Amino acid sequence: MGPGARLAAAGVVVVALVAVALGAGLHVPVLRGSATVVFLFALLGVAPLLLVRPMPLARFVLLAVAGSITGTIGIGYTMATVGWWHPAVPFAVVVVLTSAVLASTVLRDLQQLRRRERRPAPAPLTESVRTGSGRIVLGGTVLGLATVVVAAVTHVGDPVPAGLFGRLGIGLPVGLAVLVAAAVVAFVRGRAVAVPVVALGLAVQLAQAITYGMPTVTAAARHVGVLEYIRQFGRTDPASDIFQTWSGLFAGGAWAADVGGIVNAMTIAAWVPVLLAGVTTLGVGVLAAHWLPGRRRPWIAAFLTAMTGSLNTTYFSPQSTGVLLVVAMLVLATGPLLETAAAVADGSVQRVLRPRTVRLPQVLAIAVIGVVLVVTHQISPYLAVAALGVLVVFRLLRPWWLPLVVLVPAVVFAALNGDVLGRFLSLSAIGKVFDNVQPPEHDMTVLPKPLVTGLAFDVPAATLVLVGLVAVVTVLVRRDRLHWGLLAAAASPISLLVATNYGQEGIFRVVLFATPWLAVLAAGLPLPAGRWARVGTAVRAALRPAAARYVLAAAGVTALVAVGAFGQTALDWNRVTTRSESAATQWYDRTAPKGSVMLLTGSGNAVPGNTGARYFDVDYVSREALGPYPSGTGYDPDADVSTLTRQFVARTTATKYYALVAAPMGAYDERYGYQRYPDYERLADAMASSPYWHRVWSSGTTAVYELTTAGMRHAAS
After folding, report:
1. CB contact set of 166 (below 8 Å; sequence gap of 6+)
2. DSSP letters along 651-679, please?
3. d(Cα 41, Cα 13) in Å, to the nearest integer?
């Protein structure tokens, strides 16, 4: 990055701050809120990085975003922990400091431009965009993203059974096809490869955020509840639950929401994953460049990571944030290996690879990120330590004590909150790796699951297994310390399964933290030699060399994009919260008396419960807690409503009884074999006409009911 690029980065920050001021002054909530979130989550770290020596653009973006998230979480968590919640004060301080830093760096860079001093060599990404192929790649990427955005903007609405592709129609595949074409040109020509790779890494999340306006995973709702709790009470209650204890991300989001005047924080939960997905993809490419040669291989690793990551959907969650911060820490801790000469026993000189020693500024940055990671996620710090420890053992990292910089704060924080953490740990699970590796089970299934439900997990899983096999082949072919060390780093997350099943989600977290390492190894697969080289020569002879490269690149990129897009969107119908369902639970949180309980007429996994600050005051009861779903073909919705009402009141004590009917519950029940969707629609009709329930709120496909006096008498009879 020369002075021009640094001036452009400073200009982006200035534009964001001006947008915040204009939004507040002109009373434009959307402008104020969006600019505030962009500044705090993506641009807060730009000014400090402008003070250090120039670096490649990709590395700058990664560290700027990681620094922004770290700073936002650190400030928000500090305010919430000490109970001093005055969001405007630290924001004003941050703006003043940012302005002062920008003023000094802008003057410096302008002086460099005026004196026409010799500029540093441009980063490969910047240089490659200046060529003809680079311009084609950049133009194609912009056109592809624009097509996806236009398709999403013109088809805003709730999820449909066919997923995002069914919702957006032809616009989404056309946009992705243009992005694929740009990526193919980039890979073949070796120009601006990072641009389409990062775009493909975030394209689907961007389309989902625009189209649905809601998080793509219902679990994000409870995170928003903690966020709203902090906003209302100005503090956390660490002893109450694990989310309040490890509340770093939620406190940071609460700070951004209050400063930005955002009324519905679900919008933060919908849009932050777009940033996380894109920058994590970028970060893997930057990390892979430490060990993979050339312009293509590091971004092949980033591409593989992004396209096989749907087993762990990126959403507003501590683990998604944790992955990005861990990648940033690894980038700071590692670097290209240095080739040095060393004498051996016979007196000859042998060339050996040695790691760079991490300098004090990087150590301090790792320590700060590590502390923020410790208060954000329970397992990310330990998995980061496992990876760092493996790199130390294989002499790919030094100094040896660097893992302790992350481990010590994590252990101390866990010890201070042992009473909370102990509720989620079981001594009986320790050492039972094969039991802990089991994924979640759906015990109440009474119907066959649709094919799409299994394929949404099986196809990405099979692709990831293939990537893992290629990674192992790379290690067996290379057989050197570097590749054995990277393979051990990929296996290091398995250490989680030694201690816990992590709520039957341990296998998914292992996959989440192992995938980047496997992708790096797979991207390092040596070119074929011997017999396989002759096969490749025969293929190239059948086609013109240039055509062969384009055909092979197009086939590989298209297949992986199809896998990634399918895995991310196939279950939108049952996994994405609708706007009306979210509004219903927020209404319930605001208005229901303390001690109220809401009956969920379908699976609780499809309901954004606990989205408000009063999530300790009101409760939910999922249908699964009241007994098995009705089976067979003779479904009677009126009898089902009668039975549910009686069981609900008999098994709960409440100041008021409510019930929620929403389409996503019916979709979830059908996709997991609990109940047919047409039967759920009949249940919804029966609720609407039942004398036991009175509708008190409705919108779209969602309705909230309150138990009537007749319903109470029926339950008591």
Report:
1. 160
2. H---SSEEEEEEHHHHHHHHHTTSS-HHH
3. 12
| Block residue for tokens 């009470």 | 233
Q: What does the alpha-carbon distance between residue 209 and residue 249 come to, in Å, rounded to a whole number? A: 19
Q: What is the DSSP letter of 440?
A: P
User: How open is the CA angle 235-238-243, to the nearest 5 degrees?
Assistant: 95
What sign for the dihedral angle of Cα 645, 651, 657, 663?
Answer: negative
Cis peptide before 399 (omega within 30 of 0): yes
Question: For residue 523, which of 697, 351, 297, 241 has the smallest C-alpha distance?
Answer: 297
Residue pLDDT, tens place only, 291-340: 998 889 999 999 999 999 888 889 999 999 999 999 999 999 998 888 77
The dihedral built from the CA positions of residue 178, 556, 327 and 81, taken in this order, carries a sign that is positive
464 within 8 A of 521, measured Cβ to Cβ: no
DSSP state of 597: E
Bridge partners of residue 620, in order along the sequence: 598
Distance CA 206, CA 175 (A): 12
Give pLDDT tens digits for 456-487. 999 999 999 999 999 999 999 988 899 999 99
What burial class does residue 478 get, using C-beta atoms within 10 Å of its C-beta: 0-12 exposed, 13-18 middle, 19+ buried? middle
Per DSSP, the three-state class of 487 is helix
Q: Which residues contact 324 (CB under 8 A, 6 or more apart)?
A: 65, 66, 69, 276, 279, 280, 283
Check: CB of residue 485 under 8 Å from CB of residue 394.
Answer: yes
Pick from 176, 174, 173, 169: nearest CA to 154:
169
Summarize pLDDT for 117-143 with one digit per residue, the tens: 555 554 455 555 566 778 899 999 999
The 3-state DSSP class for residue 179 equals helix
Phi then psi for residue 619, to 5 deg, are -135, 170
Compute CA distances 246 → 2, 238, 243, 255, 665, whole Å: 40, 8, 5, 16, 29
Say if CB 408 and CB 401 are below 8 A apart.
no
Measured in degrees and rounded to the nearest 5, phi and psi for residue 600 equal -95, 120
Question: Which of these, 372, 407, 374, lies nearest to 389 by C-alpha position?
Answer: 407
The helix/strand count (H/E) of the chain reads as 33, 7
Q: Residue 698 — φ and ψ, nearest 5°?
A: -160, 150
**Do you know the residue count of the chain?**
717
Q: Are strands 349-354 and 619-621 parallel, antiparallel or unpaired?
A: unpaired
Distance of CA 270 to the CA centre of its chain: 11
Q: Per residue in 584-624, pLDDT tens?
A: 999 999 999 999 999 999 998 889 888 888 888 999 999 98
